[in-house]
Specification:
Length: 121
């Protein structure tokens, strides 16, 4: 039984990694590496600050990896990937917008009138 299981697993992984591997699969793997790299960036920044921080690079890698994974989802016609990444990318972009807004405020930059009214009220 164990021999059969190991043989079947070997065939499964051969099919997965060798027989079905194409340019889209390579692109999908690259997308996952880009997306995963964001955690290394976050970890290094947190270690330097000696507290948990999320640097801008984390969000840039999130957007890059998310867009790449979204393209992969469309290429593979995978609704789970498409829906997951489409909504996530919006959140990543919104976080960059909030960071930029905070940076403008802290640098004493000009805040648009609509934002000034909203924060005053």
């Amino acid at each position: 039984m164990l021999m059969r299981l190991s043989h079947d697993l070997g065939l499964y992984f051969y099919d997965l990694v060798v027989a079905r591997f194409d340019l889209w699969a390579a692109f999908g793997v690259l997308a996952q590496f880009v997306f995963g790299a964001r955690f290394i960036v976050q970890w290094v920044a947190s270690e330097k600050a000696e507290k948990s921080v999320i640097p801008v690079g984390f969000w840039i890698l999130s957007i890059s990896g998310g867009l790449m994974t979204l393209v992969y989802g469309f290429a593979r016609s995978d609704i789970v990937i498409i829906l997951g990444q489409a909504f996530s990318i919006f959140i990543y972009v919104r976080n960059l917008m909030l960071i930029a807004k905070e940076k403008r405020k802290s640098e004493g930059g000009i805040v648009p009138a609509a934002e000034a009214e909203a924060s005053a009220g």
